[in-house]
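In response to the reviewer comment on reproducibility (Comment 2.3), we provide here a single inverse folding case reported in full, input and output, so that an independent group could reproduce the run without further information from us. The structure tokens appear first.
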């Protein structure tokens, strides 16, 4: 199976808020999305972690 589960971590407060899946074969680089952080109470960049 090519899709793997990843966690998205807030770059400001380092809290892991979201989880998603991605295909590592088509997207080898780390995923960065703008998502809402409950602790910061605003939209921040969330980076992929393990």
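Designed residues, in position order:
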């Amino acid at each position: 199976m090519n899709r793997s589960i990843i966690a998205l971590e807030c770059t400001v407060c380092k809290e892991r808020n979201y989880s998603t899946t991605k295909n590592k074969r088509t997207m080898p680089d780390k995923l960065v999305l703008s998502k809402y952080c409950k602790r910061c109470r605003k939209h921040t960049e969330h980076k992929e972690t393990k």
